[in-house]
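Methods, example record. To illustrate the input and output format used throughout this study, we show the complete record for NPH3 domain-containing protein. The sequence lines were provided to the predictor; the line carrying structure tokens was produced by it.
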Amino acid sequence: MKFMKLGSKPDTFYSTEAVRSVSSEVSSDLIIQVQGSRYLLHKFPLLSKCLRLQRLCSESPDTSPHQIVQLPDFPGGIEAFELCAKFCYGITITLSAYNIVAARCAAEYLQMTEDVEKGNLICKLEVFFNSCILHGWKDSIVTLQSTKAFPLWSEDLGITSRCIEAIASKVLIHPQKDDISCNGAVSLRHKSTCKGWWAEDMAELGIDLYWRSMIAIKSGGKIPSNLIGEALKIYAARWLPNISREVNCHKNEASDSDSDPTNEVFSKHRLILESIVSLLPAEKGSVSCSFLLKLLKASNILSASSCSKVELARRVGLQLEEATVNDLLIPSFSETSGTLYDVDMVLTILQQFMAQGQSPVTSPPRSKLGFERRRSRSAENIDLELQESRRSSSASHSSKLKVAKLVDGFLQEIARDVNSPLSKFITLAESIPDFSRIDHDDLYRAIDIYLKTHPDLNKSERKRLCRTLDCKKLSVEACMHAAQNELLPLRVVVQVLFFEQTRAAMAGGKVTELPSNIKALLASHEIDPSRPTAAFSTNTSTVGEDQWSVSGLKPSKSKLSTLRMKLAEDDNLDEHDLQSDGLGRSSSLKPFVLFLQDPKECLVTSWRSARLKTTDEC
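The corresponding predicted structure is encoded as:
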């Protein structure tokens, strides 16, 4: 930090009661009042350097021994005035980045220009400011930060703009310096941890000055977007550290008073948040998805503008595959929904993700002739382009697989909310393309939690809830759990048991080949009984009754008894549950029960029936 000393005389200012005076053999003849303080001084040293005091004294001549001059709204207060007064007396004063703005504004107020006296205070301050302060990084930051006490004066005198230009030029010249550990001899792993050396210092600036400085830095076009994003993350951590649900409750309680300090704090935080959003780099990946979602949570708590929320949702959608379930738990403060989490915002993010135009892996177009006798170099280049395209498509397909797992995990969280509406749960579950879910175990777990949390769902609502569930994509363990789940609709339980028994029969070698009519039945449901199923994952954070266990499961006879009991209870059907022939659903499901009773005998009987039918037709 640089400093400058002016004057050579010792400090002779002293205080007597409420009056500040200067020791001198000459009697004082001037009283100056500054912000309630009185200074008993002399006209000659002050008027010889201060044009404003000259005019004030000439405009109101006073024959009394002490002429009184009022200096209202003096910039910098009594400290800045005393600096200027001591300079007039030749007393030593010390100037630095901490007080140069106050001294410059005070000198401008007193009009201490070269027209009054050569080598006046304004000239000396300008030389020190331009040659020393603006050349130092810390000096520029401290000086810029001190301008917030004199915003209008600093703008008019060009102090603010010159500090911002100096800061931006230094950042643009050296945007990234290696940390102590990041020297040329260390590995790339250590170099990747280096960040912009300027971010921490700039985080001390107020949001207005910070925003202007960042705009100047970004306009230079030389700073990598990831450094900009890291700087914004540091600033957010500095100024938005304690935003929480509880603080929002205090804000609601204090909403009746516009002048309440709590409202002022929230208005300040809202301005900071919206300014950070406006500074986000346009490049994808310049900030992490986790950081974007933290900003989105804060925007809900602070009731930020809809433009800021939409922009954050759009950016999150571009890199949603990086998020975690906890990141998506955005608190909801809607007075109408009463839900714990903002499902609508997650749906918006998901729509943005799906709108990117990504597509799964596709096979390259084949030749119409099916073969090529000779391959030219251009054809090989086309193949290379196709392979590159496939790799790109594979990456986008992989991101959709990750997002599908993410959404299913989020569904498990909102399923625990008793106020979570069924329609939003179903909409969110159906928003994932079918190919993105390799298995439906996580989806089934979410449905199971929802059924337990909402026991009052009627039959129709339970059917709607399970509509997205594909029993063919359930693992063996999930099937065993679903087969005994009393909360599932009967149709789902029957499908689960049928698929499980069919796969077991084929895998156990009881039936080597299925008859055509059974194959047709399975084909109508798009079932491949020979397809192996993935092991059911138990790596889940669910606790208590949501945990699944395969120990103590009932044998198949017990499953059959449970199914028969459900069929008996389901005899009391609604009109729309009746088939066109007037038979209830239980009669239409009797073949499935027979199949579960003895799958081998059922399949053999079906094969004989199909054979007799073929013979009769012949």
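Annotations derived from this record:
Strands lie at 3-6, 13-16, 19-22, 30-34, 37-41, 67-70, 93-96.
The mean pLDDT is 79.
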